[in-house]
Design goal:
The chain is of the alpha/beta class. It has one domain: Collagenase (Catalytic Domain). It contains 5 helices and 8 strands. Strands 2-1-5-8-7 form a 5-stranded mixed sheet, with helices on both faces. The chain is globular, with a radius of gyration of 16 Å. The relative contact order is 0.16. It binds zinc ion (2 copies). The site of one zinc ion has 8 residues, from α5.
Length: 193
């Protein structure tokens, strides 16, 4: 059964991780599985920036993806970055096996506002769908209501929808089926257990 594996890295809101898992399972219609928690990604900490390198987290994830899982999504509470941007909500390998999602900037508290749990969870859903969409080869969507629309700030994230548009959903389900079948086949024929 090739599907999406999900792992938390370091101390992570467990309910949010379970919510993300169920969102991916229903939105993509494929199996998900929860891996044992990964250690805190202290190796990715950049002292100069006070943030964690999402590229290094992705690199680590590549080595940890179980062969039977088509994709691995790592969830962290740490604020993550790529060199050219001040932060990212997540990063994914385009048409590749791994993605990372940061919950750090999805809570209202980050912006000095009172907590809003439902808003936090819907933001996590949007970002998880977005990053996993990239792993299945989807690029940014011009439909502002689609989860694959680009969002570089919290207003844009809140403005977009929490599902894929019909075009992205169709592309995604086809790509996900191929990738999951491929992962299953690799395990069967490759002797990987
Ligand atoms: Zn994107
Ligand atoms: Zn779309």
């Amino acid at each position: 059964m090739g599907g999406i594996a999900i792992a938390t890295a370091g101390a992570v809101d467990r309910e949010a991780a379970s919510w993300v898992e169920s969102c991916l399972a229903t939105a993509l219609g494929i199996d998900t599985e929860r891996l044992d928690p990964l250690p805190d990604p202290s190796y990715a900490y950049d002292e100069g920036r006070g943030q964690y390198s999402s590229t290094l987290v992705l690199h680590d994830a590549l080595a940890r993806r179980p062969a039977h899982a088509a994709r691995l999504l790592v969830i962290t509470e740490h604020d993550i970055f790529i060199p050219m941007l001040s932060f990212v909500y997540g990063q994914a390998q385009l048409d590749g096996p791994v993605a990372v999602l940061s919950l750090a900037r999805l809570r209202q508290e980050f912006y000095g506002l009172p907590p809003n749990r439902p808003l936090f969870l819907v933001r996590a859903r949007k970002e998880a769908l977005h990053e996993i969409g990239h792993t299945f080869g989807l690029t940014h969507c011009n439909d502002p209501g689609c989860a694959m629309a680009l969002s570089t700030n919290i207003e844009q994230l809140d403005a977009k929808g929490s599902d894929y548009c019909s075009g992205c959903a169709t592309l995604l389900r086809d790509a996900a089926r191929v990738a999951c079948d491929g992962a299953e086949l690799a395990v069967r024929s490759g002797g990987i257990r």
